[in-house]
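Minutes, project check-in
Item: structure for the 216-residue chain
Input as provided by the requester:
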Amino acid sequence: MLRTDYLTVKTTGEHEIVIQKSRFIAHISRAETEEEAQDFILQIKKQHWNATHNCSAYLIGEHDQIQKANDDGEPSGTAGVPMLEVLKKREIKDTVVVVTRYFGGIKLGAGGLIRAYGRATSECLNAIGVVKRQLMRVMHTFIDYTWLGKVENELRSSIFDIKEIHYLDKVEIETFIKYGDEPNFLNWMTELTNGQAEIIEGNLQYLEIDCNENDA
């Protein structure tokens, strides 16, 4: 079953914080399979082979079917789990995070580690950004040029988003429609054009909408 919408990380990136002289470098990326997540973790471990720890967590699947947390030598439950909890709390899907720690000589204790790894993950999400992936149907509407002004104006002030307009023998307007909303669009366009439009359902694709920290 297709997911109609979900939140995920905007792109691959990293963000560093320093706590009590220890460097915490959070690396984050999308991962739609466990294999992709493991590959990313290995890549970071190779890049930071001399780090004290490379702790990781990932959350994959519509219902978070695949989720793992790894403390990589930190006291049990103080690194991977708080990282995973940030992803869950923010409802981030299909995402892997690795937090690299270079020990600065001052022990943080269990509570300090939990806060540090959670903070590193959360701040990395804020720095890299979160997007909402919305499943859309592309609808193709063909009209005579006499209808163009009215249809375009109505579309631009409607809930539907114009993707592209092609000026051929007839005007073809490609419109993004939320998945499941196709019948409403069909009725709306038919009524608007007095049945003079030819409307064809196109492909499904995800649109990515930026979310700010509060939205996510």
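Outcome recorded: The longest strand covers residues 130-143.
No further action items on this chain.
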